[in-house]
Write a structure and sequence with these properties.
Elements lengths: L4 E6 L2 E6 L2 E7 L13 E9 L5 E9 L9 E7 L6 H7 L6 E8 L11 E7 L3 H14 L4 E8 L8 H10 L3 E7 L16 H10 L4 E6 L1 H13 L7 E5 L2
Parallel strand pairs: 8-9, 8-11, 9-10, 11-12
Antiparallel strand pairs: 1-7, 2-3, 3-6, 4-5, 4-7
Flavin-adenine dinucleotide (FAD) binds next to strand 5, strand 6 and helix 1.
């Protein structure tokens, strides 16, 4: 069972993932741990300067990107939300050594051993983060679970974790990854293009059936695909969703 905690942690590493996304790594103090399930999120609480430069306490939700099996550190992978308060601060100003509070874990967009042996993971943009956590967990535990990931991003350089995902798929035959690029013009991308939509979903579900479908990304994408999954006869209890603004 995951026990909710309120931890004070330091940003120990900042890793650039894409032009607008960074991973913040927090090493856990000796003897401290955060028990969570793959797919859960935490609230990140920190002081963020407002327009006049006055520090204000802000709290935002971020999924955990590292696997629950990784007990040394916790990774949060953050994509900038232009016009927002916390993510521009994190991307442009936050420094190694800065203290934050991390409250959690929270959320039911989760996987546990025994829930299913064939998983379809559908991610749009930064919605890849909980799927990455889940894939890292399946690999770390060497679970007999097949997972197929459909991941949409605007351009190839917006594919977060691409190197890690490619390495994972190459090393683990139970993992299959399909990217689709929605704005391929001028990028030289020769792979699949377009959104994850009903025809693609139908194509994927015609090839195989799944015990559970996980959907995470912009609300319109998630809602659109849930409608089609229900129309195709997938019962609601086999569809897990997380919508981010
Ligand atoms: C469960 C969950 C997990 C998540 N996990 C992740 C993750 O792993 N990685 C990730 O990158 N994101 C994640 N998110 C999304 C993340 O929480 C948001 O990107 C974040 O809250 C945006 O924070 P912000 O302070 O930058 O923007 P906010 O200040 O919250 O603003 C959000 C948007 O609202 C607009 N806005 C703000 N104020 C106004 C106003 N007065 N009028 C009109 N518009 C306004 C802004 O322009 C901005 O586009 C997750 C969200 C949820 C719910």
């Amino acid at each position: 069972m995951s026990i909710r905690k309120d931890l004070t942690l330091r940003i120990d590493e900042i890793i650039s993932e894409t032009p607008d996304t960074k991973t913040f790594r927090f090493y856990l103090p000796p003897g401290e741990q955060l028990d969570f399930l793959p797919g859960q999120f935490v609230s990140l609480v920190m002081m963020v300067p407002d327009a006049s430069g006055e520090p204000r306490k802000r709290s935002r939700a971020f999924s955990i990107a590292s696997s629950p099996t990784e007990t040394r550190y916790l990774d949060l992978t953050v994509k900038i939300n232009m016009g927002g308060e916390m993510t521009p601060y994190l991307l442009y100003h936050a420094q190694v050594g800065e203290e934050v509070r991390v409250k959690g874990p929270k959320g039911t967009f989760t996987f546990q051993e025994g829930m299913g042996e064939r998983l379809l993971l559908i991610a749009g943009g930064s919605g890849i983060v909980p799927s990455m956590c889940l894939l890292r967990y399946l690999v770390a535990k060497d679970l007999p679970v097949r997972a197929r990931l459909l991941y949409a991003a605007k351009t190839p350089e917006d594919l977060i974790f691409r190197k890690d995902l490619d390495a994972m798929a190459a090393a683990h035959p139970r993992i299959r990854i399909d990217y689709t690029i929605t704005k391929p013009q001028g990028t030289g991308w020769t792979g699949r293009t377009g959104r994850i939509d009903e025809p693609l979903l139908r194509e994927v579900l015609n090839e195989s059936s799944y015990d559970l479908v996980y959907l995470c990304g912009p609300p319109p994408m998630v809602e659109h695909l849930v409608t089609h999954l229900l129309a195709l006869g997938y019962p609601p209890e086999r569809i897990k969703t997380e919508k981010w603004v």
